[in-house]
Amino acid sequence: MDVITRTVDVKGQSCPGPLVALARALKEAHTGDLFELLATDPGSRSDVPSWAEISGNELLEAEVLDDGSFRYVIRRVV
Amino acid sequence: MSTTATTETELETTSLADLLQRVEVLEAEQAKQIKKKNKLTIIAWGGNLDQIWPTTILATTAAASGMESSVFFTFWGLFAIVKPEVRITGDNWMQKMMSVMNPGSAQKAKLSRYHFAGAGPAMFKKLAQDHQVATPDELIALANDLGVRLIPCQMTMDLLGLNRDDLIDGLEEPIGAATALAEMRDAAVSLFI
């Protein structure tokens, strides 16, 4: 089973904060590393998949947690 | 039997040569076409808060998505990259008057609607703070950090009497319209804001 390398908590932040934080975290990582992104921005539901598509990284999981926040698992590909 | 075989071979040879020639023509045509890069170019023309804001949001998001990103600041947009501490700029009364009417830096940018003598932008920034949205001046610093190319327009600088020292640090060398067009020409996304 793959292990999450790092959790990026951007709860409370709005566009473009979450993606910038994610991009920064990814920059410090290795190819293949798994990231968990925790967000409250409803815009992230469309923004995270779009970001993955543009940047060429892989979105593995996207879910709404019990508290209404969002959780994404991303694999660094590039 | 053998005659038929020869004819078929001849046919194949002819169609192959024909095909190769067509590929060659297509390749030559393709070479002439403009190749679009995974790149965003924004012409930042407007200096209003509600223009500089989306400009800086898009430019930083593009950079965070691994796209090349460049912003060309011209006309009113140029005032957004004036240093906040710079008051009056220009060499003559017209340029000086212009700088008084358009205080520099993104911090002092006005709203195009509901400005209400500065109350509008103050409310906007309060809302942004509550929603943890970075302000344009923070986004410009972030853009610099993320490798967004921030490029001032030489002609507007001359026209408004703005010197390189009046502008914030981290900018690229000023360029003209042709270079701005070249920036837009190979960008998959080009915007005029």
Structure in words:
The complex is a heterodimer of chains A (78) and B (193). Chain A has a single domain, classed as 2-Layer Sandwich (Translation Initiation Factor IF3), CATH 3.30.110. Helices cover 29% and strands 32% of the residues of chain A. Chain A contains two helices and four strands. A four-stranded mixed β-sheet of chain A has the order 1-2-4-3, with helices on one face. Chain B folds into two domains: 1-33; 38-192, DsrEFH-like (Hypothetical Protein Ychn, Chain: A, 3-Layer(aba) Sandwich). In chain B, 49% of the residues lie in helices and 12% in strands. Chain B is built from seven helices and four strands; from the N terminus they run αβαβαααβααβ. Chain B has helices at 2-32, 49-64, 93-101, 119-130, 136-146, 154-160, 177-185; strands at residues 37-44, 68-73, 149-152, 187-192. Chain B starts with a helix and ends with a strand. Classes of the chains: A alpha+beta (78), B alpha/beta (193). Chain A binds chain B through residues 12-17, 19-20, 22-24, 51, 54-56, 78, and chain B through 38, 57, 60-61, 63-67, 131-134, 139, 142, 146.
Broad CATH class of the largest domain in chain B: Alpha Beta
Tell me the number of strands of chain A: 4
Task: Count every beta strand of chain B, where a strand is a DSSP E run of 2 or more residues.
Answer: 4
Helix content of chain A: 25-40%
Q: Could you name the CATH homologous superfamily of chain A?
A: TusA-like domain
Uncertain runs of chain B:
none
In short:
The complex is a heterodimer of chains A (78) and B (193). Chain A has 78 residues and is α+β, with helices and mostly antiparallel strands. Chain A contains 2 helices and 4 strands, in the order E-H-E-H-E-E.
